[in-house]
Request: fold
Amino acid sequence: MTPRALVPALAALAVWQAVCQAGLVAPAMLASPVAVGAALGELWTRGMPPGKTLPLHAWHSLIRVLTGTGLAVALGLPLGLALGASPRFRAACMPLVDFLRPIPPLAWVPMAILWFGLGLASAAFLIFLGALFPVVLSTCAGVRGVDALYVDAVRALGGGRAAVWGKVLLPGALPSVLTGVRVGLGIGWMTLVAAEFTGVRGGYGLGYMIMSARDLQRTDMVMAGMAVIGLMGLGMEWGMKRLAARLLRWQ
Amino acid sequence: MTMAATLSIRGLGKAYPGKGNGPETPVLDGIDLEVPAGSLVSVVGLNGSGKTTLLRVIAGLEAPSRGSIRIDGRPPAPGGPAAVGLVSQELALLPWRTVRGNIALGLELRRLPAARRDALAREYEEAFGLSPVSDRFPRELSGGMRQKAAIARTLVAGPGVVLMDEPFSALDCQTKNRMQAFLLDVWERRRDTIVFVTHDIEEAVLLSDRIAVITPRPSRVEEVLDVDLPRPRVRTDAGVNALRARIVAILRRLCREGR
Reply:
């Protein structure tokens, strides 16, 4: 990141602080950046609910997102590859995918609780559902987007099916796959927090932390929780971008 | 290394199935072609005369509807050590592989040990002037360099017959002239068997030992002309001009006859 990229962020913070300090909005409606910063400190040391500190909330949420997204990649990648490579499989399965896709993960919450209870499995299942379709669709599009020229080139050099997959379809689809995983991770975070609103066993998670703060009308802590989610999402996005830049040097 | 082979094509036909129950579309209608080992034979024809299809069938990318293809008397074994190499019009260098990676591709497919693969790729890079761009990706190369990389990738795999599908048609005039000279230079040293498809008659006359003129679809070989002109040939040479005029006349006649 360049220093230049910090300018809009700092300007937004300054305006926000000024609005709060001028008394234009009540602190209960909008906490100032300074107050949010202080709340972060309090969340880190005392926790919300007291004793349950921010790092533990963040850790639990992170594990849920990574588990759910990991499962989505583990299943979505082969599924997307098969859908992309076989017109017949695509014709047979695409209606099912298109039927399941618009059902929001939140609508699955009751089913998830019925099937998996309130633990990691339930949260991971919901995130899995959210992240699955971007991974499947991007992978499918990636495979379909590989120019047949390259397939022919490998076949003309004596390559068989395995070579076509290994040397052409997989590397050719990779940019699209990585985009799918990035989108999936983002949706994973959105799904996670919503899922945690509905309750978690053990009482850890950023969504759970935010809801606890809301019950005590701690707007500053609610906003601090939001900021933490934003930062973790941002961090993952940077990580993915760096990974993509390394893997896709040829672009 | 190269073991130039003889290519014999007899009565090669290719038709694509029609839509639904419609009639099939014939593209090749009994092509006969002899390409002696170590010779450079051009196939010229009007646009859309099935030249690319012919090469795709010889390369094993598509099955012929009838007729036979023999390389040193044997049918090309599918999936075996490629008896036939193809440089396609679009080159089809894999964009995610460096020049080195592209050149080594055919050797990987033949499961050569890594050390041997590397040594061979290096040797070809040197011979083709590609050493300085060995670790560049195709998009970072000039048109001429890409051509060289594509040709090197095909030749390094050691095919008995090399097929080239209008490889220079997308190049600007200058680069095209340079690449033609380059190809001749490489060929005169190695003596590969080359089937060179082009719609550029001058190019065919400048390069070839022999020129097969094919008819529009469904294509067959109309006439085979031997090019008995000493190399290096010059564009403005009287012999070159006369032969070019002869081929143009044949193509005009085919066009008029509507076949």
Q: What stands out?
A: The longest helix of chain B spans residues 238-256. The longest strand of chain B covers residues 25-35.
